[in-house]
Write a structure and sequence with these properties.
By secondary structure, the chain is an alpha/beta fold. Helices cover about 30% and strands about 15% of the residues. It comes from Streptomyces lannensis.
Length: about 400
Amino acid sequence: MGRLSRRAFTGAALSLSVLSTGAAAAPRYPRASVEMRGMWLATVFNRDWPARPGLSASVQRAQLRERLDAAVRRGLNTVFFQVRPTADAMWPSPYEPWSQYLTGTQGKDPGWDPLGTAVQEAHARGLELHAWFNPYRVATHTDRSRLAASHPARRHPEWTVAYGGQLYYNPGLPAVRAFVENAILDAVRRYPVDGVHFDDYFYPYPVAGQTFGDAAAFAAYGGGFTSRAAWRRHNIDLLVRETAARVRQIRPAARFGVSPFGVWRNAATDSRGSATRAGVQTYDDLYADTRTWVRSGWLDYICPQLYWNIGYSPADYAELVRWWAGVAAGTSVGLYLGEALYKAGDPAQPAAWRSPAELSRHLTLAKRYPQVSGHVFFAAKEVAEDPIGAMSRVTADHYRQPAKPPR
């Protein structure tokens, strides 16, 4: 699948063969497999990094290196680094202000370049670095006056929609889509990133009793669509297709993928759907037709967030692995599985998550399906801290030998 990663295999176990004379042959490294072994490194709310806003540049750099070192220790080979958490930037962007999660003040220069440093430091460790972008979230509040004075949402308030206590760019406006793509692609031009990554936020998750205020945009741009829902899906389709094409043009070696919510549609809604009873369906609620994206080959990979345990009846991990493997079968789209490492040991979760072996069982189950090319763990904080040993168990059971990321 194209070029190989820069993965270094220092520290791998040596393989010795004994000659007929009894002398040991020269040691050989084992042949590396190809498998995605990733982690998300979230910056929104300072979830994984930096520990808090306002730390010095040297401390932030050191903390970033620690997160990357933890990925190496666990046998991982890829980091998905959130560089645009709320229509802001973890690099010196000409389009959007510096992220508030660096200094505590949106727009304030932190005195260093986190994305540039992350790419350099990841590659030095043999890790791939995928830049992770949230396309439409502007703020986790609705007060535009709290945004940096230079923020595009202040210059173009007509681009925004307040919904569920947060502020979003309106995906139905062509000007918004063009701006979002340009802001994202600035990072792709500047840095040798190995991938471009979207998460599960397209149209916002539904909030009971509230309506997303895009009636005017639908009236202006929705002609020819039978419903607002169909038009909304078309808007997200355009974002995905156009971003994919532009990434391939600007940086052909970079891979483009999405990590959607794990249920496309329940079978009770659509016979092509999974045997689940999920309360959210990406097709109907987020207007993200993830199945079509895979079947049409628009993506290089898809990484559905399968954040449930084996046997969880509303959304059984085993059923969803089976379903997604069927969707990916016969396509050129890589399938990685998003794993809820953050649930391990959480007493608020079903009992299965209190076993350190639950995630290891996920990887064992997924090996039954040749379409599955690896796993990505949420998130970096738990990869490092490993509160009940679930990540250590995954490494011991599955990651003893090195692997190169799929290409």
